[in-house]
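Q: Convert this sequence to structure tokens.
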Amino acid sequence: MNEHFTNACTACKKAGMKKSQQLSTEQRHRARDLGIRIGSLEPGRWNAITDVPGVRVGHTTLIAGNGPLITGEGPVRTGVTVIVPRDDIAKDPVFAGYHQLNGSGEMTGIAWIEEAGLISTPIGLTNTHSVGVVRDALIAYDVQRWTGNDAMPYRLPVVSETSDNWLNDMNGFHVKPEHVVQALESAATGPVAEGCVGGGTGMNCHEFKGGIGTSSRALAEEFGGWTVGVLVQANYGWRSHLHIDGVPVGREIPVNEIPSHRMQPNADGSIVIVIATDAPLLPNQCKRLAQRGTIGLARAGGNGDNGSGDLFLAFSTGNHGVDSKGIYTATNIRMLPNDAISVLFEAVADATHEAIANALCMATTMTGANGRISHALPLDRLQEVMHRHHRID
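A:
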């Protein structure tokens, strides 16, 4: 099978396969571009996790084949997303904290995060059965490029997942090491592609098409001038629970109007939420930020159902030299006092909610394995509903 992978779902094409068979080409817009403003804090320049200085994001999107599911052959609707906390992360780790709302999911490397509060690798997001290959590829990438005089220290990469088996041949192991390398080498600051891209390619959210979404908040100087960015891989939730800025969008646009991708309500889905900030925080404070991602998820309509993997990771780039191996002297680090971080909690909650909204707004209708269709949230209807509830003009 001739797989074609790219960094943007709108460029995904397969010889002999019509665009309409892959995903729709409808024009999509982010929530804020539709007039939806979540919370009172302002976003950063790109309204993305990359507004945190030094953070880069890269995607590899895999879309190929059509028709019946044949394990190992397709159809393929998957990919990998990488978040690079900062350049030379291997030699200059960042403080981090982890939180789990419901544990029917996987995130590697969390034992060391819980123990030492450190991340020293890029963060990978992919489908459930590709976690291992992405983890190994991240290690191999460092091994091949290590420039130290000694052997490269061990790596415990952070890789997380949600399941795309409704649209994708997830048991076919289509994500390869070269796809991870491509995502790493394309990782950049600036605007971040959203929706049907990277690890989010085959995901669904609140019974609409879901995927990757991101948002940020830039605090005023009176609150320290720090930036908080969030990126989600959204693959969870029931239609009737979906709320955007307090509006019951899921009930307003029910499944008898826009069909659900689910034939039966028999799967919960999952979400992974990655939070970044340049505020100087200690690991326990990062963990507290990760916990506040649950508030944004709850506002959007996530309940942490029994079969859902709701996993949260927060990291801070506000310190350097926190893991100076072999130096038996104290390292100077900075931290915000706890009384100063409540506004960061607000930023996390609002940016998480908006990132989920952006994943829904930017995703396009997709046809996958066995002709299954996941319909995009109709933006005209969304605007109509938000206007009727006095959220937009």
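The helical segments are 19-22, 110-116, 131-145, 177-186, 249-252, 283-300, 342-362, 379-388.
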